[in-house]
Design a protein that fits this description.
Blueprint (H helix, E strand, L loop, with lengths): L33 E3 L2 E4 L14 H14 L8 E7 L2 E6 L4 H7 L3 E6 L2 E5 L7 H9 L6 E5 L5 H4 L2 H6 L3 E5 H9 L9 E4 L1 E6 L2 E8 L6 E6 L4 E5 L20 H13 L4 E4 L5 E2 H23 L4 H12 L10 H7 L2
Parallel strand pairs: 6-7, 7-8, 8-9, 13-14
Antiparallel strand pairs: 1-10, 2-9, 3-4, 4-5, 5-6, 10-11, 11-12, 12-13, 14-15
The structure holds zinc ion (ZN).
Zinc ion binds next to loops.
């Protein structure tokens, strides 16, 4: 899964380091809490001085679709807490639709341990209190780590507040770079990793796998004991939400299906996607086949020199795929899938 390069431009070197979290060393200036088979990257000061690149059309669509809507304060109880396996919970929007995603963001996985809580993703920033209320209904332990599946605000928007509370935020080095490129970013996660990493807390283990699909640095978060994976936005299980690649963040459709194959190599029972209800291994196989079918139908239509509009219409008719914000995806797909 993924060649990895450290943010400082050096290739990952050396044998895997196996170093475990310790109760008294949770902060990222102590690298001893993560194991990485490639490299572990602390946020270097240079990231803050990177030139701000202009957003592409695709990124703007994401911004319009998600980030702008995040500024509205949510009304009413937007989410509920589900136990999905013994010791593993998710915070999910009550309404599994696009409107709720735009208001509240994606799923949050909650993994309590005796030494603190590990969260995967953090919804939009205004959802912080809602998330914390649900975590507190499970345990009085603090949130120690928040792993971000990727850079998009509907997953990462709440992380700054978690960081301010003392949690360490972890994301792939590639998506850390994506976050650093965003104009006016006020804050960046403390830790980026490349390739694979393991996190140990309170006797529990979490494995991180960096893959490329939805963005160039998606993270699969695997709980090997509970046999659960949080897969971020490699796919969504909300009917209204099509599979989306963010080309401006370095994603790709070929990678999308390849990485679902990588996901299938993990020994799991349930996958919690970034949006929508959890799915079984059998469901993931079906999703993988659908992604490949859409991809190859797209390639055929593209070779027939169909227009963007015709391709969108055909895919919507044949697969129910292509509703917003997928149209923002089609120009990039036309470049990639020739
Ligand atoms: Zn996303």
């Amino acid at each position: 899964m993924g060649n990895s390069v450290c943010l400082d431009g050096k290739a990952p070197t050396g044998a895997p380091r196996r170093i475990h979290a310790r109760e008294n060393s949770p902060r990222p200036n102590d690298p001893n809490f993560l194991t990485s088979t490639a490299c572990l990257v602390m946020v270097p000061p240079m990231l803050n001085t990177l030139n701000r690149l202009s957003l592409s059309v695709a990124a703007l669509l994401f911004a319009i679709g998600f980030i702008a809507n995040a500024q509205q304060a949510p009304a009413g109880p937007p989410t509920e807490l589900h136990k999905i396996k013994e010791g593993v919970y998710e915070i999910a929007n009550i309404d599994a639709n696009l409107d709720a995603i735009r208001k509240y963001g994606g799923n949050v996985l909650v993994y309590p341990t005796n030494d603190g809580v590990i969260l995967v993703d953090s919804k939009f920033e205004p959802m912080h209190d809602d998330i914390m209320a649900k975590v507190k209904s499970l345990t009085d332990k603090p949130v120690k780590y928040v792993i971000l599946t990727h850079n998009h605000a509907d997953h990462s928007g709440g992380a700054a507040k978690m960081s301010a509370m003392g949690a360490t935020i972890i994301i792939s080095a590639d998506d850390l770079e994506n976050m650093a490129r965003a104009p006016n970013h006020a804050w960046l996660p403390e830790v980026g990793y490349s390739g694979r990493a393991q996190l140990h807390l309170g006797g529990k283990e979490v494995q991180l796998y960096e893959v490329r699909g939805h963005t160039k640095g998606d993270t699969l978060v695997y709980l090997p004991v509970e046999r659960v994976v949080e897969s971020g936005d490699l796919f969504a299980t909300v009917e209204e939400l099509p599979y989306i690649v963010d080309y401006s963040s370095g994603g790709g459709w070929m990678d999308l299906s390849n990485e679902i194959d990588e996901l299938l190599k993990l020994d799991f029972d349930l996958v919690v996607p970034g949006h929508g209800p959890p799915v079984t291994r059998q469901d993931v196989v079906k999703i993988r086949n659908r992604v490949v079918a859409i991809r190859e139908r797209f390639r055929a239509l593209n070779r027939e020199k169909k227009t963007q509009e015709e391709i969108g219409q055909t895919l919507m008719k044949e697969f129910g795929w292509g509703k917003e914000p997928a149209p923002g995806n089609i120009p990039g797909m036309m470049q990639e899938l020739r």
